[in-house]
Amino acid sequence: ISCTDLHQRITYPHYAKEVIEMIKFCQDGHIPPEESRFVFRTAILSGHAVESDQYVREMFGNTDIFVVEIASKLEYRYKNRYVHHVAIDPDFNVPLTIRDKITVQKQSYESLEGDILAIRSLLAPKRFFLVTHYSSYDRGERYQLVQWLEEIGRVHNIRVLNPKKRLKGYQADSLFEREKVLTHYSKLGHKLIRNVYRWEILKQCFR
Fold first, then answer.
1. Which DSSP category does 27 fall into?
2. CA–CA separation, 85 and 64 (whole Å)
3. Which of 54, 126, 169, 193 has its CA 20 to 30 A from that of 26?
């Protein structure tokens, strides 16, 4: 299985509308390079614009299966753009005149459902599946998001992969780096989740 480097070139989207922003950018470059400096993670961190060039369009167009992770209900909006959450961090390269106008809001179930259907429509006829965040506890915002995604998947016949269920034989402490909020997989976690993704992708290929 070969993977593209589009997430490294452009952004690691966390919420559904940010995923839509990235898909549209890969398809038709709807965001000018200069605007990309405050929209996409790679441009924000590097201070250099990113472009939807021929390489990006070909990589996107040649992709057989898309893995779409939805990790947050929080949306970060500047005017008509949905931006990566680091855009509000003063340590990075987003001008104060833009950063101060970024609004943050929590997404509703209905809004999330609409976004997932929009993602399916934008990617059609290509295959995709959703991946939830890992929820350590059966409560809280993260857990509710996982529940919403699984329900949307059931209602609309969309495959949803829940890492916690797939890795249920392992303690969270062994799967993640020691952080206040579990965010980054450990070496063991990376190895295990890589295999989970691999088998899910292979299964999708032979459906």
1. H
2. 28
3. 193
Q: What is the pLDDT of residue 180?
A: 61
Average pLDDT of the chain, as a whole number: 91
Cβ distance 105 to 61 under 8 Å?
A: no
pLDDT at 2: 66
**What is the amino acid identity at position 205?**
C
Q: Does 60 score more than 90 pLDDT?
A: yes
DSSP assignment, residue 88? G
Helix axes 140-156, 109-123, angle to 10 degrees: 50
Helix segments in 29-185, DSSP class H:
33-36, 41-46, 54-61, 96-99, 109-123, 140-156, 163-166, 172-175
For tokens 């441009």, what's the residue?
43
Residue-wise pLDDT for 101-110, tens only, equals 999 999 999 9
Residue 29 · residue 52 · CB < 8 Å: yes
